[in-house]
Amino acid sequence: MSASFSVGFGGGRTATAVRVGTPSDVPAALAALGLRGPRPVVVLVGGAGGLDAGALDRLRPLFEQGLAPLAERLGAVLVDGGTDSGVMHLLGRARSERGATFPLVGVAAAGTVSFPGGRSEHDDAAPLDAHHTHFVLVPGRDWGVESPWIARVATELAGGSPSATVLVNGGEIAYEDVEHSLAAGRPVLAIAGSGRTADELARAVQGGPADERAVRLAASGLVRVVEAGDPGALARALGAVLQDGPGADTRPA
Asked: Is 0.85 topped by the overall pTM?
């Protein structure tokens, strides 16, 4: 594991980052970032480049009125993929616009992201999001290799505290993200109406026709459904898990 370093985004925005080489580096890496558990953790996974401007506008209230205020109130840590795209973009902007203080940790494969100024190791690199507070950069040049690392970072940060995963939209990689969360015993809230993987998983939970992968994940009993148009329901569902533990009933009131 390398020492932590600062990433400057301009406009006075900076984040602290660290590179890790092996899973055993994670505890020391988080300590180097000044992040210590146990504390409530929310993992955000789902749509990145596949979300157009209209979809982003429609989903924005989930982050501005649901996820960000809840995280701030509970002192939670948010963990996602760290790039300036899709749901990660929405979360970063929601945190910034509210003046929130909760840590927002991006976990990304080093070969898939670019630093301010365009420095990257990959032709298809995505820029890091300037509204994140911390980054954990993991080995790899392919999208999706960060999935098990996101789950591991979340588990380490949570310690003995409750954690949950929120799935908004998402493509093929989102199935892997959900699998890793479920393997860690982490409840997943699938946002119905947000599109693609989240909708498939929601249909599977509700007993409708769905992709066989979604049906298998739904059979875990750890997946709940929240409607995309109800930010309050998302806050209530997350609050139930993060305050009462993973066995809580997370159905919207």
From this structure: yes
**Residue range 214-243: average pLDDT?**
96
User: Residue 67 pLDDT > 80, yes or no?
Assistant: yes
Bridge-based pairing state of the strands 41-46 and 119-120: unpaired
Structural domain harbouring 30: 5-244
CATH number of the domain that residue 137 is part of: 3.40.50.450
pLDDT single digits (tens) 161-213 = 999 999 999 999 999 999 999 999 999 999 999 999 999 999 999 999 999 99
Residue 247: pLDDT over 70: no
As given in the structure block, the two tokens for residue 190 are 């699938």
Q: What is the average per-residue pLDDT within 95-105?
A: 96
Cα–Cα distance, 88 to 167 (Å, whole number)? 12
Classify residue 221: in a domain, yes or no.
yes
Residues constituting the chain: 253
Domain count, the chain: 1
DSSP tag of 58: H
Residue 143 is assigned to a structural domain of this protein:
yes
Residue 253 lies in a domain: no
Tell me whether residue 251 is in a domain: no
Residue 252, preceding peptide bond in cis (omega within 30° of 0): no
